[in-house]
What does this fold into?
Amino acid sequence: MKLLAIESTCDETAAAVVEDGRKIQSSVINSQVQEHRVYGGVVPEIASRRHTEHIVEVVRLALEQAEMTLSEADAIAVTAAPGLIGAVLVGVNFAKGLAMASGKPLVPVHHIRGHVAANYLTHPDLTPPFLCLIVSGGHSHIAQVEDYTTYRILGRTQDDAAGEAFDKAARSVGLPYPGGVELDRISHQGDPGRYPLPTPHTAGKYDFSFSGLKTAVINLSHNAGQKGEKLVPEDLAASFCRKVSMILWEKLEAAARDTGAKKIVLAGGVSANSWLRAQAERGCREKGWELFLPELSLCGDNAAMIGAQGYYEFLAGHTAGMDLNGRPYMEIGEEF
It folds into this structure.
């Protein structure tokens, strides 16, 4: 079964063809990173306009690379939530038009479920149940994935998401957007013990808090500037990356220990962070747990992951009509 998938929740216009939820036939991404970099982050209005300009060509290329036509697709999957609402609506309405014109089923997909499903593409033998740490620019969750469309949230961020904290910390030391990638890049030339950083505490055993940690980095930078002292960006990057990865792993480890989970999965853009991947690999090796990491090319936003999850949503009967609407917020366990 082949699904044509569309993703447009932020600053990537993407389309892909995925077979049986496990095999990528094609994947096309038009990124707006360079355009938004001058503003230090994504400008929603610009993102929406660029999606409208590129979506036709991106979908055409995805079908062309898969050597198929729209009529040969079995269904059309689209990210319908959560995300920048203007951007989401571009993809949703385009997919609705394709579904109406072709008579194909329309399958709405939750963006974060898609990130989890990126692992099905990387690891064809991976099946639920498993424990998943989902970390991205807008989300930080620990979830029990009970089956392909059933999720139970054990922990979540109480303020900033991990990815947002990375980007803000990077900006404070003068690194360009997207800051998390740049912070990780320079961190390997730094001393992770140079700058002691606080460990935020939360009421929930598996919950996260990154606001105070982000503020601590910003204050370090500002105070150094006011005193005329030289801040070493590489050392601060290393200190911050190590601290965040330790926090994420400690919460995930506690959840795994308490639930008896033996299969550990990472998902989302921050799952590409080298410190987090190394920490998870080391920790799982020590505990004897299986670890599944998404391929680096599938950590960020892409349509292939939406096609993978869309396949399982379709099998579960989760299709939509022409009244489907995009949503800026939506819990991962909700259904459209």
Notes: The longest strand covers residues 23-31. The radius of gyration is 20 Å.
